[in-house]
Amino acid sequence: MKKLQVALDVFDEATTLSVLEQVGEYVDIIEIGTPLCLSQGMSIVRKVKALYPDKIVFADCKIMDGGGVISQLAFEAGADMVSVLAASNMETIETTIETARKYGRKVLVDMCAVKDMEGRAKEIAPLGPDDICCPVGYEMQATGVDPVEELRRLECVDTPKAIAGGIKLETFAQALDSSAEDIIVGGGLYNHENMGEIAKKMHQMIVEKG
Questions:
Q1: HEC string of 24-92?
Q2: CB atoms closer than 10 angstroms to residue 82
Q3: If both were cysteines, with which of 16, 76, 103, 191 could 187 make a disulfide (CB 3.0 to 4.6 Å apart)?
Q4: What is the CATH number of the domain that holds 76?
């Protein structure tokens, strides 16, 4: 069954915990977004994992260098998964994956800003990442880029995929019909007063899809 991931691209612990109180029971993966990692450090990973031990906690570190050191910090704080940028050196990606295996954890390779996604995906897939994500970044969302169309560029590899980029309830069905196993929603949840109800509806759509 596909998974619902909430991307917590917020800046403080209070907001993080407030969002999770409303959507936590409906999501499968809790993403500690890059802004949150930078503003709060790994302490927020430790806090969230302690509160939600049965959820997958994903530290979106966007590792570009120092794959072993940075991923180790995240894993020792309780992260179940980290992200490494596909644009980084192959050695960095490989080291991040090797470190994850030592801890029994996972790695998502982030295709952000990669021009030749098909070619890069074919290079990276043999390293054995757990997921490849084709995100439509925050600034790019205003250009109208469709995350579902972007994701099709990664269908050249069998690696499990995640989709992200401005997904909301109105476009959730299209994301659900894509090849992605993880559907990442950020502002489409926490920018609404009734975020709990929206998360519940998304969860129900996944269950109905089977």
A1: HHHCCEEEECHHHHHHHCCHHHHHHHHHCCCCEEEEEEEECCCHHHHHHHHHHCCCCEEEEECCCCHHH
A2: 30
A3: 191
A4: 3.20.20.70
CA nearest to 176, candidates 202, 138, 200, 145:
202
Quick: pLDDT tens for 84-106: 999 999 999 999 999 999 999 99
Q: How far apart are CA 49 and CA 54, in angstroms?
A: 8
- What is the C-alpha separation between 19 and 190, in angstroms, rounded? 6
What's the gap between Cα 35 and its chain centre?
A: 13
- Containing structural domain, residue 191: 3-209
Q: How much is the pLDDT for 120?
A: 98
Counting residues of the chain whose pLDDT is more than 70, the rounded percentage is: 95
SS3 167: coil
Dihedral sign (CA 56, 61, 63, 66): negative
The residues near 139 (Cβ < 8 Å, ≥ 6 apart) are none
Reported pTM: 0.96
Measured N-to-C along each axis, helices 13-23 and 195-209 cross at an angle, to the nearest 10 degrees, of 50
Is residue 153 within 8 A of residue 171, CB to CB? The reply is: no
- Residue with token string 């992605």: 180
Domain count, the chain: 1
pLDDT tens string 168-203:
999 999 999 999 999 999 999 988 889 999 999 999
How far is residue 190's CA from residue 20's CA, in Å, rounded to a whole number?
9
CA atoms of 175 and 158, how far apart (whole Å) = 18
